[in-house]
Design brief:
4 helices, mainly alpha, about 110 residues
Length: about 110
């Protein structure tokens, strides 16, 4: 079993990178609401995977460390997106680069 602080620390590191990973999936033309839903769901899934990676499956028996880690991933991912990745243009640039462009239609 990993300590709560270790789990939260790892969750914070994962959360800091989540906006860049999420930007690969998102598309620039999606609504703000759709982007937010995708970001939250991906952060929650990343939190679950972080708990399983750091503490193993048995870590889920411990509610407080599990919840704290998932909450840390979500909070850090949202705050770093708003404070770092979006203002610097990295996340929007990744969205644009990874979006498939549809070919022009003839007619």
């Amino acid at each position: 079993m990993s300590s709560t602080l270790q789990l939260i620390g790892t969750g914070s590191a994962v959360g800091g990178l989540m906006p860049l990973i999420t930007a690969v999936v998102q598309h620039p033309d999606w609504s703000v609401r759709a982007k937010k839903i995708v970001a939250v769901v991906m952060a929650l899934l990343a939190g679950v995977f972080t708990v399983a990676y750091e503490g193993g499956v048995e870590q889920f028996q411990h509610g407080v460390p599990t919840f704290a880690t998932i909450a840390a991933v979500l909070a850090v991912s949202q705050s770093t997106h708003d404070l770092i990745w979006k203002p610097t243009g990295f996340a929007p640039a990744i969205e644009s680069m990874t979006t498939l462009k549809s070919p022009p239609t003839a007619g």
